[in-house]
Structure to design on (476 residues):
């Protein structure tokens, strides 16, 4: 009697549906968005429709997450939620905003540093420790048949003849070089020390005096003609290269000094906390647990997860396999990024009206792309229909989209991490662990059945054919 009384109280407290779910051996679904279920068979067939996808729990959760994001997006449209609203857009564009704000602060810092002057380029050129070369290439390989190598050499001769007849080396390279990395730039390579290029290229190039060029030379990549441009021609290129190098070095020094100055420290428990977060990423996004501290602030697990979310699922999954030292470095790098943004904001660095205009155009383009890909255009979501009708149509459109995925007709389009997070914080969804596990089992069973059918090949009926009997009962 006592057990019945307890069960009766449980029914009254939770409702019959909850009790049925708790005691049922069959999971109701793999996931659910605002009452719309992701059926187990749908998830299983989708996993098999994505060739090369491992049929395991991690993959099931990842694919279910894509479905959740798609359904949340569809339901938001169906409910006439304004996805171009500035508040939603600001959340959906979070990573873009952080990147642009950091870039503006970087520009401010660089503007206050000493300019790189022309004499520096002259000094580098005359010191002759590094050179900028110009070349064109006709691809060939020592493994090719001789007649193909001969054709490539003749093509290089034609290009060389054009230079000898007065066409500029840059024009010849742009029109005929097969080195895609330098062709658009007129054949100019980056400033580099001796030994940077393959031996046969380097040996010929470093014998040149300013303005000279080599005859046709062969390297493992093919046939080249190399030129050593005079100083006036490459002064600006040397300056640009020096500025780039200097900027990278100064950026590295600035970030390191920023962490030191603010006494950035990663918590000793951070590696274990990060690994646990990967297993429950949605929960991690809400966590206030400390990952790192600095003077006047800290980095919570939720904030850390938001940065990882912006980098994408592959980066999130990679974090789980990193050693402790790698996770400490990752936490420190994210902490430095957070400090950089904080310092930019403290110095009043924000985004201009023009910046916001560009970002909003980017956001609208992303929304429009998703609307078109998922089949959620105005022709489907009729503005005269009731909200309930629009929600049903939106759910059907997503189901049809995932039916195509299940048939192997394409890979599901991911919603950008910050936009997906903005949708999740505004919508209602949940996963069913038992349903996810069941979907993996069903997917594996489907794959085994398909493999067995393929191994068996087409079946032949070994029963001998009987003579046909006509309708009158006689023989043909």
């Amino acid at each position: 009697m006592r057990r019945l009384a307890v069960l009766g109280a449980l029914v009254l407290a939770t409702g019959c549906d909850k009790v049925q779910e708790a005691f049922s051996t069959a999971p109701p679904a793999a996931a659910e968005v605002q009452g719309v279920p992701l059926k187990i068979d749908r998830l299983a067939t989708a996993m098999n429709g994505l060739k090369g996808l491992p049929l395991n729990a991690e993959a099931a959760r990842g694919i279910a997450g894509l479905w959740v994001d798609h359904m949340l997006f569809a339901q938001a449209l169906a409910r006439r939620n304004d996805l171009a609203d500035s508040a939603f857009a600001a959340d959906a564009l979070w990573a873009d905003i952080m990147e642009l704000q950091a870039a503006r602060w970087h520009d401010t810092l660089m503007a206050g540093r000493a300019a790189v002057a022309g004499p520096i380029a002259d000094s580098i050129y005359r010191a002759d420790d590094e050179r900028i070369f110009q070349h064109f290439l006709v691809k060939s390989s020592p493994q090719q048949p001789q007649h193909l190598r001969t054709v490539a050499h003749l093509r290089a001769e034609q290009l060389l003849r054009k230079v000898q007849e007065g066409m500029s080396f840059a024009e010849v390279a742009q029109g005929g070089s097969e080195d895609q990395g330098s062709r658009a730039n007129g054949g100019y390579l980056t400033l580099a020390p001796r030994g940077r290029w393959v031996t046969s290229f380097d040996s010929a190039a470093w014998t040149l005096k300013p303005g000279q060029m080599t005859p046709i030379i062969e390297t493992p990549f093919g046939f080249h003609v190399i030129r050593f441009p005079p100083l006036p021609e490459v002064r600006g290129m040397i300056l640009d290269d020096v500025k780039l190098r200097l900027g990278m070095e100064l950026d590295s020094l600035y970030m390191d000094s920023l962490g030191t100055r603010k006494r950035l420290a990663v918590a000793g428990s951070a590696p274990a906390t990060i690994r646990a977060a990967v297993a429950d990423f949605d929960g991690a996004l809400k966590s206030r647990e400390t990952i790192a501290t600095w003077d006047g602030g800290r980095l919570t697990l939720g904030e850390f997860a938001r940065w990882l979310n912006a980098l994408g699922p592959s980066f999130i999954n990679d974090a789980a396999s990193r050693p402790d030292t790698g996770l400490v470095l990752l936490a420190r790098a994210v902490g430095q990024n957070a400090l950089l943004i904080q310092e930019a904001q403290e110095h009043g660095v924000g985004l201009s009206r023009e910046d916001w205009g560009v970002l909003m155009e980017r956001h609208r383009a992303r929304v429009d792309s998703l609307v078109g890909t998922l089949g959620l255009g105005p022709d489907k979501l009729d503005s005269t229909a009731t909200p309930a009708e629009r929600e049903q149509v939106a759910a059907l459109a997503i189901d049809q989209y995932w039916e195509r995925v299940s048939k192997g007709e394409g890979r599901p389009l991911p919603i950008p991490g910050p936009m997906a997070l903005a949708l999740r914080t505004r919508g209602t969804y949940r996963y069913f662990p038992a349903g996810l596990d069941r979907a993996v089992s069903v997917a594996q069973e489907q794959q085994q059945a398909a493999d067995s059918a393929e191994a068996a090949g087409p079946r032949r009926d070994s029963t001998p054919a009987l003579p046909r009997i006509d309708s009158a009962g006689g023989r043909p």
Q: What stands out?
A: The longest strand covers residues 134-139.
